[in-house]
Design goal:
The protein has helices spanning about 1-25, 35-40, 60-75, 75-85, 185-190, 230-235, and strands at about 30, 50, 100, 105-115, 120-125, 130-135, 140, 145-150, 160-165, 170-185, 200, 205-215, 220-225. The protein is about 30% helix and about 35% strand. The longest helix has 22 residues, at about 1-25.
Length: about 250
């Protein structure tokens, strides 16, 4: 009987390691044609979450702005002044102008500079106004609760992507991708002279983006498959079975 139990546990361990190892291949980056990119861009509207054009005044919004004001006042005074300098706007304040609302994901986000070249966002639950965490500011958000953030740089931007997911009351980072071969400026600015979106989500957590290949000095189109792996889930699950949140930056 002991040998049966031993075989069972050995088999279980082997299966777990196999699952983790195979799951690591889920993230992939592939060059695609302009034709495929344009076709996907025409179909992408239902897979992307767009920030609301306007935000109504209500008790939850007031709560979010009040908490944001409190958090801002806790920042170092020198950094507070630098934030005013970054925006180059003496009228900068804790108001709806800097608030993002994603109704499909029940999220408010107050945008705040993390550096002179990049923004962070303070996330709040839009149903109760409770603070969730601070994380990288989203560049593109999909309907499955995953968003990608392109890191901002002063110049010579590499493609530097960070992937976050909302799970219940947590938002956590589960994947990243950086390549010096490709430029991150187009995805960050989200503008393209052709009129196409420079970055967007499609079905099955597929991210599409247009960028510059520095090696070839030409525009290229990339398709990135993003799927949370078994390894990611194991690394982000805490002992109480909650999901590990994104690091909180005061």
């Amino acid at each position: 009987m002991k040998s049966v139990y031993r075989i069972f546990w050995i088999t279980l361990i082997v299966m777990a390691y196999t699952a983790v190892a195979s799951a690591q291949t889920v993230f992939s980056v592939e060059k695609i044609s302009e034709t495929e990119y344009i076709k996907a861009e025409r179909e992408c509207s239902r897979y992307n979450v767009i920030s609301a054009d306007s935000i109504a005044d209500n008790d939850i919004v007031s709560m979010v702005l009040k908490e944001s004001q409190t958090k801002f006042e806790r920042l170092d005074s020198a950094w507070q002044q630098e934030i005013y300098d970054i925006y180059n706007n003496p009228d900068f304040g804790i108001n709806k102008r800097w608030l993002k609302f994603l109704p499909e994901l029940n999220l408010y986000g107050f945008i705040i500079p993390e550096s002179p070249h990049d923004d962070a966002i303070w996330w709040f639950d839009s149903e109760n106004g409770k603070y969730i965490c601070s994380a990288a500011c989203p560049t593109a958000v999909n309907t499955n609760g995953i968003y990608v953030s392109q890191v901002g740089y002063d110049c010579d931007w590499p493609l530097d992507l960070r992937f976050f997911r909302r799970k219940g009351n947590f938002i956590y980072e589960f994947e990243s991708y950086k390549s010096l071969q490709y430029s991150g400026e187009g995805p960050y600015c989200q503008v393209d002279e052709s009129g196409l979106r420079s970055i967007f989500w499609h079905d099955n957590n597929m991210l599409y983006l247009k960028t510059i290949d520095h090696n070839r000095q030409e525009s290229v189109y990339l398709k990135i498959k993003v799927q949370q792996t078994v390894r990611d889930m194991l690394e982000n699950v805490m002992p109480n079975e909650a999901v590990r949140p994104a690091p909180i930056k005061q």
